[in-house]
Structure formats: C-alpha cells, structure tokens
Amino acid sequence: MKNWKELEASSFLDANARERALGMVEAGTFTEFLNPRDRFVSPHLPVLGTAVEFDDGTVTGVGLIGKHPVFIVSMEGKFIGGSIGEVNGGKMVNTLRLAEKAAVQIKAAHPDEYDARRPLVAISFETGGVRLHEANAGLLAHAEVMDAFQDCRHKVPIVAVVGSKVGCFGGMGFVAAATDVIVMSEEGRIGLTGPEVIEQEMGKEEFDASNKALVYRTTGGKQKYIMQDCNYLVEDKISDFYDVLAKVADLSMQQIEEMRRIGSLKLVQEQMDLVKLVGEMQPKDSMDLWKYYGNESPEALPEMSTAEFLKVVKRRVRK
Amino acid sequence: MEEFDNTMIGRGRDAIDMIIDPDSLQENVIGSYVFDPEYGMGAVVGTIKLEGRDATVIANDAQTFSDRFPVVFGGIIGLEEGYKMATAVYRTMEADADKPMEEKRPIVLIVDTPGNGPGKMEEIAGMNKSTGSYQLALAEARKAGHPIVAIVIGRAISGAFLCHGLQADHILALSKDYGTMIHVMPLTSISRITKMDIERLEELSTSNPVFAAGVDFFYKLGGVQEVVNKVEDMREVIIRHINEIYAIKAAGQFEKLGPWGRGLLGEERGGRTHRLKAMAQMNAEYETVADKYINA
C-alpha cells in the first residue's frame, strides 16, 4: 500500500475505493466503518452464485481535514460495477446519518466554533446504480439516500467526487446531482441513462455507445463544467480532489448553497430555462451548446489539457 | 404476458376521477399559480378535493406525445415532466406556507410510469437533475408536514419509481391482479445477467424478495405499505392513509414515514433484515472514535 504522500500524487482514476477514501482526508486520520475484517457481506449474492466482497464494494468511514470531520463513502467499480445493494446502500445512508449526528454533537460541544469544525460528507461515486442481484433493496436504498440528503441540507455540506472509471450512472446519477457541490476530473462522467442503454433503447443513430469521444462530450467532466453541472474541474490527481474538499470545508453554508443546481423553486426555474433552450435548439451534440455559450471552436475543447481548458472555456451563465 | 382486462395501465386520468370528489380537479392550478398547459404534458398536476379538503394531485399521462422531446410518451417522465412535477410540489408548499402543520394539504401521487427519458438531448441537458429536483421537493414537502401518499396503479419501474413514488410518506399499490408492475428489471433480464435459469430464480424469489419483480415482494421489503385489492377501494384507502399520516406527523414521529419508515417496515416484515444490523454496527464503531473527531 502506498503511503499518504505517494497516494496524493497518484492518479484518482487508477485508485481503488480504499485509496481514494484515505487520500480524501489528512494523513493517518481515516477510521473505516464496517471494514473488510468485519466481513459484513451481502447475504443476497451467494444465493445467486455471485462472489461477495468483505466490504460489499463500498468503503465508509471518517477522517479529518483540519478540525472538520470528513465522512467518506467511496465506491469500488471493480466489484459488480460499484452497484448498490442492501448492505452497501445501508452503509451509505448511515454515513450520512452519522455526519448529521456529528454536526449535532459538535454544535453542543463547541457552539462558538461550529463553522471551523463543521462536518463534511465526500462521496466518491463509481457506480451504475442499483445492483440487479438485489435490485429491490438497492432501489429502496437510493430513496433513503435522497431523504438523508434533505436532512443534511443547510447543516452538513455534501460533495460529490467523480473521476473514476465506471462514472456515475443510473439512480446514483441523480443522487450526485442532488449533492451541494460536485467536483470532477475530465475523465469523470455523470448521467442518468448510460450510453449502452440509450443505444439499446433508442438505436445507434440516436447514440453510438462505442464512440468514446461522443460519450465524454455528453456526460464527461468538461461538458458538466460548461453546463454548470459541476462546480470544480480538476486534474486527475488525488491531491487535486483533496484540495477542493479542503476549500469547501471552509466555505460558509450560504456559499455552499449557491453552488447547488437543484433543490429549490428558483433553481428549478433556472433549469427550466435550459430545457426550453434545448427544446428549441434540438442540439445534435453537446458542442452545439458549447458554441451557443460562446466557445467559438468547440471541437478544440476536448483535446485541451484541463489547465488550458479552464483558461479559455466559456460556461453557461447563471442568473 | 398475461392479459388483464381490468388493468389501470395507461389510465392515469381515469384514476384521478375515481379517487377525487366528483369533478373537483382544477388542472394546472395550485394555489395562485397557473401552469402552462402545453408544458410537460406527460404529467398531470393540479388541485383536487378529497372529502372537501384541497389536495395536490400529480399523475402520469400515458396518452400524450412531445414534439420537443420525442422520447417522452407512454407515461415516460422527461425533462419537462420532472421539473413540472417539482414545481407542483414547490407551489403546494408555497400555497400553505403560512398554515400550521396539521393544515398543510396532502399530495397524492398517481404512479404509472415506465421510465425516465432515455435520450441524448436528455443527457446533454441533464435528465438526472430533473428527476432529482422532483425527489428533493417531495422530501422537503414531506418533512414540512404535507402528507404524501403514492398509489401505484400501473407501472412503477426503477428510476421512474424513485422519481415519482419513493419519496412519499406511504406507498400503496393496486394488487397484481390488475397487472400492476413494480420492478427495476424483469426477471428475464436478471436471468441473463446472473446466468441463472428463470425457473430457478422464480423458486428463489419465493424465499428472498430482494430481486424479483412484483408488488408482493415490495410489500415484504416495506416498499409498499398496503396492497389495495379492489380498484373501487382506492379513494377510501388513500383518505385513510392521509389521516394516519397527519396523526403520525402530529405526534412528531416522522421517522416512521417515508424512505426511513419503509426501512423499518422492511425489517418488521422480514424482507430487509441486514441493513439495520450493518447500521447498528457502524454506529457502535463510530461511538468508540467519535471523541477524536468531535474534539479534533
């Protein structure tokens, strides 16, 4: 296992769920809940002849950034596509509940220092959503996560961290959208219906899932950044993600609320303006919108390094 | 597939008429807000009366098509539909903002949807935000005191059920005799993915409700509060649940309702017994280290 410094310098994309969990908090501060030694596995997979994983494919725990407890959920795409079942869905929900509980405890113990000690939740998504082997339980877990998000609202910031191979799709695509702050690398992808499913449902003319450039233009980090569907676009390095978490931990709740894209009538109205534009424009490709927002050579954007891209890109203007 | 001559699939508007006080639907009006009737036509929203009391109704309309968004038909929830439904919830909260909790109007969700819009334009604009915003709105309204009852009359499929249904206080479903479908994927797809015979899966599903499609399995998991056996009973059962929810909220027992309440019910009914054990163990592990993080 790499030491913390080596981890920080590593690629986020190549890191497994536990490395990402360790790397998103300060060195030596991470305590894992239901770690693999607990062997709290899915009881449903063996029935269907599928191998289990001792952490059920999701690492949960708490670490520190400064005085801020950072509650972590980190999904492992190599285990059944990072999918959500009864046990790892429960781990995710309970991590959110523990963060909310910690907020209450900190307010009681340090009433004058709440802002400096306010908890944070960071979720490293790498998942296609519901685990089909236990689909009904996985589906119900998604609703519990959304419910827990609403309980954390205005109290504990929730950050979606997306830069892993599987991306973040299916039900977890809207879970990520419902967080306060989204940080992505250009390799990260967020969507609802995955490329293969669109192709299967609507045909290859609507969406050619084997066209990787098209897939990234539609759901990748750069597209999400232009659309204001991610707040921070960073290089594919664990320390770059860590730096954003450290920054967000110190923002005011008001600043964090302003980063949201959904969650109020005003935000719904802003999104409806976007839907109106898309309905009128009938874009054949994301690049049509990139151009509309003032990027004169949209086809050049995917080729740029993240640093170059951030220098020249024009984004959707928020009201 | 079996034929059901009494099915309510595709009949969201009929279901509204069967549930509400006669002729009480004011479509596209909630409080002082009036919706554009041309917008998001796959969703019906408006104000109804139930035993003389105002309520909001949100239903799918499977009979409409969209010129702007061709993937939306047959009850699919598209970009416009999700935001229209979210707006209906926010306007409901706004209409009762000054009222005490016990007077906040109910919201009735009539569920018959096969999915969220699966297209390229949908992904470019962010279909995930549309469905997510509706769910957050429902969660906020539920916590503010509005009783929310969902009734599955036809199809409640995967992400579309998460969007329209799974944030309610209580979920009801017409029995499977009406052809009601609740699932993520049909058993045939699960058979393909797990490479197990469909016969074997059917046999397994009798003892383990977590993967198979069907109303009764969701009942066992706590995902459905009560199965409604006769379509004529829908109105009466919905009204009974609304009154129960008012009482539970008045007693401050919000945790018995909504997604968390369904988790408790799933354990009680023996369908989901592991998640609470996992959570209890996590809580115990947290207690041993909490001091280090609270007083860092």
Overview of the molecule:
The complex is a heterodimer of chains A (319) and B (296). By secondary structure, chain A is α/β, with parallel strands linked by helices. Chain A has a domain at 4-190 and 229-262: 2-enoyl-CoA Hydratase, Chain A, domain 1. Helix content of chain A is 43%, strand content 12%. Chain A is built from 14 helices and 7 strands. Chain A has helices at residues 4-8, 17-23, 86-109, 114-117, 135-152, 171-177, 195-202, 212-219, 221-226, 238-249, 253-258, 265-281, 286-292, 306-312, and strands at residues 31-33, 58-65, 68-75, 120-124, 158-162, 181-185, 232-234. Chain A has a 7-stranded mixed sheet, sandwiched between helices. Chain A is globular, with a radius of gyration of 19 Å. The model of chain A has no long low-confidence stretch (mean pLDDT 97). Chain B is α/β, with parallel strands linked by helices and 296 residues long. Chain B has one domain (12-294): 2-enoyl-CoA Hydratase, Chain A, domain 1, CATH 3.90.226.10. Chain B has helices spanning 12-19, 79-95, 120-125, 127-144, 158-163, 187-194, 198-205, 215-220, 234-250, 258-268, 275-294, and strands at 26-27, 29-30, 33-34, 43-50, 53-60, 107-113, 148-157, 170-174, 181-183, 226-228. In chain B, strands 1, 4, 5, 6, 7, 8, 9 and 10 form an 8-stranded mixed sheet that branches. In chain B, helix 5 links the parallel strand 7 and strand 8 (170-174). In chain B, helix 2 runs parallel beside helix 4. At the A-B interface, strand 2, helix 3, helix 5, helix 6 and helix 7 of A face helix 2, helix 3, helix 4, helix 5 and helix 6 of B.
